[in-house]
Amino acid sequence: MQYFTSNFRLGILGGGQLGKMLLYETRKWDVYTKVLDQAADAPCRMSCNEFVQGDLLDYATVVSFGQGLDVLTIEIENVNVEALKTLKQQGVKVFPEPEALEIIRNKSLQKTFYLNHGIPTSPFKTYESKEALLKDALHFPCVWKSAEFGYDGKGVQILKSAEDLQTLPDTPCLIEEKVEFEYELAVIVARNEKGEVTTYPVVQMDFHPTANQVEYVVCPAAIPEHLAEKAKEIALRVATELQITGLLAVELFLDKKQNILVNEVAPRPHNSGHYSIEASYTNQFEQHLRAILDLPLGNTDSKAIGIMVNLVGAEPYHGPVVYENINTVLAMKGVSVHIYGKTETRPFRKMGHVTVVDTDRASAYQKAKTVKESLIVKSHG
To answer: Which candidate in 130, 141, 164, 202 could, as Cys together with 221 as Cys, close a disulfide (CB 3.0–4.6 Å)?
Structure first.
């Protein structure tokens, strides 16, 4: 099939920053795109060929949106999977496959999948309601996760005592044993329709102490080569077992005993891969496009050390966004600023990211720290 400057039509469910960055690549190759998002001011609205405002979880809306598309992909998991199954039956190629997405978007099903396929993960137990959870004898501390609709640290809570149970919502959930880890890692796997597969280097993720949100992503991770290879092997196995087409971001723990455990996955471009726009020969967004169009996969090697700094709304600001001291950061060598196009800020909302590229790890870290301390996301007034 001819994809470039042609009648081919690619659909994207979700119009946020991931979709916006994917559209950089579709415009580079002149691939016709159509985007669905519920927000009239979604970041994707200016860059796609067609923008449709609508509910991603509404069956009829998603089926109607998909009519006439050749390939449909996602930039967020919270979409109507039954609609994707219908579109697939009607002949639309849907990537990631609805069957895999159905497992991934429900964390209870996802963890059970790992257990059933012998993929290393932390011990867990699932519950259908808060009532069922309260009847069980838990060992604290532990980790509570909502089965569905968790995103960017939402739907996750560390429980330190039985008192913490009282504030939890009444929803299907799971309890995980709290892992004592040295590093949180991630591996992005790319797999095309032919089954060709490759991985990006292992990265380490440094999290905010209270928001459960990534502050820095560092590539490559500061771990021995044999552990990096083991992490890649596990990530490849997860992608193969799920039969994913496109990208699969696999988040992992390296625990104190040097075991590597799968935490969770995302079947799309991911925050842990943003560094690749400047630091890799093939960035993750181009790679996702290559994979879902069944094109040859690109070179995943890094050109240099890359550190990504998330730009999130500072506390306590709410309202029209202002990027304080952005000129200071723009003047730094090897530093690239990405603004997502969200007009309103709030505490810990992802508003952009900055990538530092350097040949020296210590220098890259120092620049990243300067970026974090200098560039503050505030609001007017």
So the answer is: 202
